[in-house]
Amino acid sequence: MTMTFLKRALLGSASLSMLALSPAIAQTNITFFYPVQVGGPLTDVIDGYVAEFQAQNPDIAVEAIFSGNYTETTTRALTAARSGNPPTVAVLLATDIYTLIDEDVVQPIDTFVTSDDDQEWLDGFMPAYLASAQVDGHLWAVPFQRSTAVMYYNKEAFAAAGLDPEQPPRTWDEMVEFGKALTVSDSSGNVTQWGLGIPSSMNAVHWLFGALVAQNGGMLSSEDGTHTFFDSPEVIEALQFFVDLSTEHGIHPPGILEWGTTPSDFMQGRLAMAWHTTGNLSNIRNNAPFDFGVAPYPGNPEPASVLGGGNLYIFSGASEEQQAAAFEFVKFMTSAELLADWGVQTGYVAPRDDSWETETLRNFVQEVPQAQVARMQIADSVPEISTFEAARINQVLNTGIQAAVIGEQTPEAAMQAAQAEADRILAIYRD
Amino acid sequence: MKVSRNFIISMFLLFPAAVLLIAFTFYPTVATLIDSFFSTPRGRRPAAFVGLGNFERMAADPVFHRAFFNNLIYAAVTIPVSMGLALAMALLVNSRIKGRGFVRLAYFTPTILPMIAVANIWMFFYAPDYGLIDQFLGLFGLGGTNWLGQSGTALWALIAITIWKLAGFFMIFYLAALQQIPPSLLEAATLEGANYLQRLRRVVLPLLMPTTLFILINAVIEAFRLVDHVIALTRGGPNNSTQLLLHYIYQVAFNFWDTAYAAALSVVLLSILALIALIQFGFLDKRIHYR
Amino acid sequence: MSANRPSNATQISVTLFAWCLALLWVLPLLFAIWTAIHPPVYVGSFDLFAPLTLENFVRVWNAAPFDRYFLNTFILVTFVVISQFVICTLAAYAFAVFPFRGSQWLFMVVLVQLMVMPEVLLVRNYATISKMGLIDTIPAIALPYLASAFGIFLFRQAFKSVPKELDEAARMEGAGPLKVLWRVYVPLSRSTYLAYGLVMVAYHWNNFLWPLVVTNSATTRPITVGLQVFSTVEQGIDWPTVTAATLLSVAPLLVAFLIFQRQFVQSFMRSGIR
């Protein structure tokens, strides 16, 4: 990196001395695609970061482009890359990694890491978050806006049901037992409050189901992204449990629970316990009319949650100067202080331990102790399912889960069909 | 020679349209057709000729079958219902009812509310238990229906949104046409003793025929094009029960990045649409007489 | 429909039906207004005494340049409709008035475009626009739609129904082809232009997918794409924000329609669409 530093220093001083002579400063232009996935328009916050970066690095001009949600950002970045005009840096899903490698459009981050400073920066990330970005002996991305799934629960409903509001369930059995106590019907037999809600809509179910499978001691995909284990006993059992929550135990609303409405369901008192992302904490904190708790996930027997969110990728189509500038930008965006601030502004989990030591996050945790739960749970968390053809494999899995949840297929039949389809899709990636 | 003069003038007149059509319709269509005979290129694997491989895959693809079948239902319901409602609305607004101005405005509002924005509002209507529809049904002791979350109702929930969106828009055209019907024709029919329904059937509907065909073209296009709410609400779920052809193409192309298979799917959709277009226009060209 | 006035009971039930339907149709808009003027806590509980607030609007207004989005949409729609009028008129004129060998066949080829939706050709068109260096410009949003087979077909129909004598009379006076078009054909097809114009305004006002792909910045983004910022569902839907944003973005059109609806509907009707 000394080369880059020298180059930058030279360029910087050159441009400074030329400033008086010529209006044309030698600048490196980079583009930065990012989604805003948690609610509230955070484009101003990002623009603020970019302005700060440019003030520190006058020789780099960053064009920050808000590009919709994750799917749209990936769509746009890949469409742009295919037509020869890729972004320089983008925030994309951690699970997009195999797709991006397969398309051959990203540059491994570790090829930029040359100095001790860089290495120190890299070592500061939580290993759990780096793990999913390592493929073929390279690190392809660094964590930026990361989240994990947690359980929100209504403390007042717990108290009303005679449960201890400070003791959320720790096992599946407890969760079912508590759920039964928390499920309330009116005089005509209609349920007015369900014990538990786990969203199962197309855009989310593979994520939360991954937590159920991990709790049951199973896994959904192999580490090299070429195999899935949908028809393994652990996975089928986990799906059976998911289906039973509604059909057998009667503590979960029937049919598909929509991810987008689940926070409202919880805040309206329709759900006493709800599985969702940590990214929702500030929303629920601001709007829930009751005292609520955030709990780590239960286990069967080992508790487990699932990691999610987006990483920063550098695209390989850009020139070397642009890539070097992009790396500076990536380091800036993942500094301890900035990630702490981003976490407070959004509810994402800062993926660096030193971020949690900053004053910003310390004060925040003091004010909102629930934020701490996410961090404590990371050690128990597994990566989101990640394979080649990730979107298609997720679609196959989600369709199978939904078929079982709405009762069109048994969990076993649904997962066997999903596995057969996944095998067909992944066959060409297995050597 | 007359023919060559016409030809030269036509060439000048057609030039701008031709350039645009070639650049943004015919070239990409042909390219898509060619793509459909190749495999999807990935960064590490270039495209290879696979012949009819993509089409064979489609024949065996249950999601495609489902999307095809769903789209037929979707079209078969949205087209006649939205057109029928549009006609009914136009007749209502054209008669002497109180508050006509408000009623007309009410029917027209969906047209100015972009689908992508109203999708979220509809999601609230369909939300189980506390959603608007269930709150209303709750008054009668019904409720707890997960409209978008079960395969029996999800597609119909989307169809309802489409009808809501389109009927008011089509109404405007019917309304304008109704106002053009000479009152003397209706009076003559009345004098002959025709009641309201008879007048409607014998005088009004035949005179609305050109408008009906104009609306029909638009309704067919929308029945295959309008998938914004699928993207926003269900993404084809649950278990593909709301999967529609264009949405599936969008997913395969822009979520799965399987451009070759998406091209093959597009070829099928384009063939269906081109066929409908040719039939319609062949028919229209003979039937519509503009004055 | 005059004469033979229906009975009072029929009249009342018809009015009632019309009103119920109207209420049903306007419900999403009413819900949007209701939700947007109340604090988030009151979503779904229709409490008449819930406190009113404009805070949702303030938050949304400060979060995105709605004035700019609206201007973009306005420029886009104006540009598309005017260009379509010119391009499709010329082509339709050729097909209707200057037939040549193969023009019938060529017309059928053009018609195929009617059903070839630009949405299906997204990837290819993006590459074309990109090569032209037009990404993130308003013309880029418009270009794939400018030559419309639907427009060409409609205008051709309209021109064909213009009496030949008028055309010949104009030519006798020494008018060239373009002058005849402008003096005779266009004025007599006003109603078709109005109907087609309305369809296209509605289409591009609502269009989403293609603008989403080709625009990058607030200076070009139309309203539909700008609205998408507020409807990302990862965190759950924030209905007060979504509805406030929706209302802000449709407000100008809604107000314009409210003020001009009489003139609009009347002129639309006077022109007589067939």
Summarize the structure.
The complex is a heterotrimer of chains A (431), B (291) and C (274). With 431 residues, chain A is of the alpha/beta class.
The average pLDDT of chain A is 87
Instruction: Indicate the multimeric state.
Output: heterotrimer
- Named at the architecture level, the CATH assignment of the largest domain in chain A is 3-Layer(aba) Sandwich
Task: Label the overall shape of chain B.
Answer: flat
Helix/strand structural class of chain B? mainly alpha
CATH architecture of chain B: Orthogonal Bundle
Indicate the percent of residues in helices of chain A.
40-55%
Major beta sheet summary of chain B:
none
Ends distance of chain B? 31 Å
Q: CATH homologous superfamily of the largest domain in chain A, by name?
A: Periplasmic binding protein-like II
Please write the CATH class name of the largest domain in chain A.
Answer: Alpha Beta
- Which percent range describes the beta-strand content of chain A? 15-25%
Largest interface, and how many residues on either side?
B-C, 109 and 107 residues
Which spans of chain A of ≥5 residues are poorly predicted at pLDDT below 50?
A: 1-24
CATH topology of chain B: MetI-like fold
- Percentage of residues in strands of chain B: under 5%
Estimate the global geometry of chain A from the Cα principal axes.
globular
Arithmetic mean of pLDDT of chain B = 85
CATH class of chain B: Mainly Alpha
Output the CATH homologous superfamily of chain B: MetI-like
Q: Radius of gyration of chain A in whole Å, from Cα?
A: 23 Å
